[in-house]
Each structure stands twice: as C-alpha cells, then as structure tokens.
Amino acid sequence: MKSFFAYIAEIFSAIWSLLTGMKVTAKYFFTPWKNVTQQYPENRDTLVMYERFRGEVIMPHNENNEHKCTGCGICEINCPNGSIEIISKSIVNEEGKKKRVIDQHIYHLSMCTFCNLCVKTCPSDAIVMGQNFEHAYWNRTSMTKVLNQPGSKIMEGIKE
Amino acid sequence: MAFEKYDFTPLTQSIHQGLIENVSPLLTLIIEWTIIGVLFLLFIAVFGLLLVYVERKVCAAFQQRLGPMRVGPWGLLQTIADFVKLLMKELITPKSVDKFLYNLAPFIVIIVPFLTISVIPFAPGLQALDFDIGIFFVTAVSSVGVIGVLLAGWASNNKYSLIGGMRSGAQIVSYELSVGMSLITMVIMAGTMQISEIVELQRGGWFLFKGHIPAIIAFFVFVVAGTAETNRGPFDLAEAESELTAGFHTEYSGIKFAFFFLAEYINLFIVAAMATIVFLGGWMPFHFGNFEGFNAVMDFIPGLIWFFLKVFGIIFLIMWFKWTFPRLRIDQILTLEWKYLLPINLFNILLMATMVLLGWHW
Ligand code: SF4
Ligand code: SF4
User: Fold this and answer.
1) Between A21, A32, A36, which is nearest B324 by CB?
2) B28 near B22, Cβ under 8 Å?
3) A83 lines ligand 1 (CB under 6 A)
4) What Cα–Cα distance (Å) separates residue A42 from each residue in A45, B64, B69?
5) What are the tens digits of pLDDT across the range B14-69?
C-alpha cells in the first residue's frame, strides 16, 4: 500500500517538475522583446558590443600621440601563438643616456586567438582589447598591424 | 443554430448534383475522388510547409531567438526555399541497401497521413469519409506508419538507421496502446465511434468538460502518447541527432527525405486534430453555460476557424513539450508507457465506465 502511495506521489511530483520547466520556456516565449538575436547587417550602426568582447588587440594613444608601451617585450613572450613581434630601437635621451624604446609593435591579427594573455601581462597596460570584429580583408598582409602609430612616443612617467 | 450558416453541406451537395446531372455516375465518382485527392494533396503540402515554418519560429521564440528572418518578410518563404532545395537534390541510393524496401519505405510512411486525414471533419459538412468506425479506422491506419519506419531502418543497411528504426518501432508499438486506450475511454463516453456523431454530441459542451476527471486524464494521456507516436521530442530518440545522426532516415536524400519530414509534421497535425475532435469538440464553438450573448459571439466564428484554432493550440502545446523537455532514454520511454501511462489508462477506462453507468457526466 505504501508503494502505491509512493507511485501516486511520484506521478504528481513528475507533473509538477514538468510544469516548472514549461513555465521557464513559457516565460521566454512570451517575452520576445528580450530575444538575444542581433539582426547584424541591419543594425550595424546601433550595434553595441559587450565590454567583455575581445575583437582585436589595440594600443590606445592619447591626444598628443603618446602611448604607454615601453617596448619591454613581455607581451611577445607571453603570446602562445607568436602573434606579437616587438622591434625596439635605442635612442639617446636629453640627459645623454641611451634608452630602449619601441620602434614597431607588430600584431598579427591572423594568428591571434584573442586569449587576452598579452593584455593581462603587459606591465604598463599599454594594450587593450578593442571591440571591432569586422576583420574581413582582401589581402593577408592587411592583417599584420603596427599598433604604435607613426611618430608616436611614450607617455611621460611610465616606469620602465 | 447560428453557425449552421457556415455549413459546407450545400456546397458539396451542389457539386455532386451538378456532376451527377451532367455525367455518368462512374465519372462523377472519379471526378469527386480526384477533387478530394487534389485538395488533400494541396492541403498536406501547404500545411506541412506552414507547420515547419511555425515550428522553427516557435522553437526560436522558446530559445529567445528570432528564427528564420532572411527569406521573405519574417522568413515566410524559408520553408518554400528549403523544399525547392530538397526537390532539386540528387536522390542517392547507397550501394548495399535493399533496393525495393528502401524505395518503398517513404511511400508507406507518407500514405498514413493521407489515409487518416480523410476521416477528419474540418468543418460542418467538410469530411471526406464518415465511417461508423472512424476512431477505429484512425488507430488502425496510423499504426501502418511504423512499418515504413522499420523498413526504412532495416533496408538502409546502416547501424544508425537500424537502431533508430528499432527504437521507433518499440516506441510506436507501445504508445499506440495508450493512444487507443485513451480514445476508447472517450468512445465509452460518447457511445459511438462515428467521428461526425462524436462531434455532434459535443454541441452542448466539449467532452473535456462534460467528462471532467476521466476525460481530463484521458486528454493528458492522449497528448503525451500522441507526441510519442509522432516521434517528436522529448520522444525523438529514433532520430536522436547526437547519437544516431538522423536515425531511420539517415540514408535518404532529396524528395524521399522530404516524405519522412512531411509525414512527421502531418502526423503532428493528425494527432492534434484527433485530440481536437475527441476532447475539444472538433469544429464546435466554445459555449459557456447560459451566457447567451457570449455564446452568440462564439457562434459567429465559423467552424473551420474554430477547428484550426484548437488544432494550433494543441500543436503549440506539443511544440512546447519538444522545446522544453530533454530527450528520454529508450528504457525511460518504455517505463513511462508500461509502468505509468498504461495502468493509469486502464484505471481511467474503469472510472469512465463507472461514471457512464451511474450517469455522473453531463
Ligand atoms: S605592449 Fe606592454 S608588454 Fe608589450 S612591449 Fe609594450 S609595454 Fe611591454
Ligand atoms: S590575445 Fe593572445 S594570441 Fe592574441 S596577441 Fe595577445 S597573447 Fe597573442
């Protein structure tokens, strides 16, 4: 007799749990304005990517065309795919001392897996992840980018 | 009754009269058969495509997506484009299949919805065949489909197809029982198997309300078993994509694949239509007690629209199941049938019989 009641109870608890599941999907169904699909090419102008999105590695410059990269090469060492090449040069500064600065921060977009390791390990936070994702090019060489802009120099006060 | 003005009988009668006065009786018969055949063919093709579109949209909405949006406005032409693509595809017959059975299977599967659809009353006077054993006919022919599925699985000579076919066979054979029994429950209440009469009996109120507790139990059993019979999720383990590629129709391409695909959706319609006829009063409008005004408004809506409203309601319910519940394992499916649905059903028949004897239903 006990097992009979257990059987009945099981049926009702099963129906209850199924109804709980159906309630969840019903909520999705009847709130279509919360849909996650983006109508991409149409909403291109208004599309806002999420902050956590990793589109490409970029190096922000300020209004005086200055960046924070010291040319230390840590990002190059940390990149698992060898997508970064640091070419540094040495210059003589005002005090007459020799100093190593970045010449070209070369970034191979075609090899990057957007793992974020370079951004994480950069000691001076010189590079960040950009949000542009339209990376279709006619030519493979366009995917090799120099991140420091021509004529740019390092900001004042960045520790080497 | 107000809604008799939507009766199709005068129309069909006048066509019949017009024919019989002008041509021989034999030719009349042939012409009428052809008209009905073409109508059903059109209906199945159009409704199948529509259902595929609806399914994709409903599924998308359940998953917070938009579904097809590119072909035509709101993706309305998507399924037509898909169908054209299927028609143009090459018909590949794998080398080691059993040629005859392999080619036969899709036709057996597609024949079933054509047979069952003939007894469905879409509106007053719009029913091709009105057997006095209509319910029995439906349960009988709908079990022919399993032969097609088994043949397809066997003749494909492929382990995925065979496993899929066998699963499907085990499943359909078991759930056939529940479908039949829940229909029998309602037949006990109606006292007839003639579909037109069953609909007529629900003029004063749908069987779901008239028969209260046992009718509601039977309704739920029917919807669950009907979902299983159409091989739809959560009972779609016959074509479980993740383990069996596409189950019994893995080796089919082009139009033969389209047959299986179409048959699945039309079977969905048939299950929904049967549920509508037996439990929800077919094309009968919804009436509530003695609210004359309300009832008059309900009568104003034609029976055809009522029928399709109810059918789409049930189809929506079945789609809701599919996109909510995870797929069952084969042992779970058989447990559900033999340990739960069948005993409940047997008890329910007893309950219904008692109720009918004591006159406890309305
Ligand atoms: S980007 Fe950062 S880690 Fe890479 S060279 Fe410049 S300062 Fe060093
Ligand atoms: S994101 Fe990863 S793969 Fe890309 S450049 Fe940085 S470290 Fe290399």
Assistant:
1) A21
2) no
3) no
4) 8, 19, 12
5) 877 887 787 788 888 888 888 888 888 888 888 888 888 888 888 888 888 888 88
Instruction: Give the pair of three-digit tokens for residue B319.
Output: 């789609």
Indicate whether A12 pLDDT > 50.
yes
pLDDT in tens, B297-352: 777 777 788 888 888 999 998 888 888 888 888 888 888 888 888 888 898 888 88
Residue A37: list chain B partners with CB under 8 A.
60, 64-66, 69
Ligand located closest to A88 CA: 1
From the CB of residue A114, how many other CB atoms can be counted at a distance below 10 Å? 15
Query: Tell me, what's the pLDDT at B109?
Result: 86
In angstroms, the CA B133 to CA B192 distance is 8
Atom of ligand 2 nearest to the CA of A107: 5
Spell out which residues of chain B touch residue A32, defining contact as CB-CB under 8 Å.
61
Angstrom distance (rounded) from CA A16 to CA A10: 10
Element (H or E) spanning B167, and its range? helix B159-190
CB contact under 8 Å between A25 and B320, yes or no, is: yes
Indicate which ligand has the atom closest to the C-alpha of A158.
Answer: 1
Name the token pair of B205.
């109120």
- Specify the fold of A56-154: Alpha-Beta Plaits (3.30.70)
pLDDT at residue B1, rounded to an integer: 42
Tell me the DSSP string of A30-41. Answer: T-GGG-----TT
Distance from CA of A22 to the nearest CA of B (A): 6
Residue A70 CB less than 6 A away from ligand 1: yes
* Structural domain spans, chain A: 2-34, 56-154
Whole-model pTM: value is 0.80
| B238: nearest Cα among B201, B216, B263, B272 | B263
Q: Which two tokens stand for residue B352?
A: 């219904």
Q: Is the pLDDT of residue B4 over 70?
A: no
Pairing mode, strands A66-67 and A153-154:
parallel
Give kind and range of the element (H or E) at residue A87: strand A84-92
Q: Model confidence over B186-211: pLDDT tens digits?
A: 888 888 888 888 888 887 777 777 77
Of the candidates B65, B321, B325, the beta carbon closest to that of A36 is on B65
Q: Where are the domains of chain B?
A: 91-358
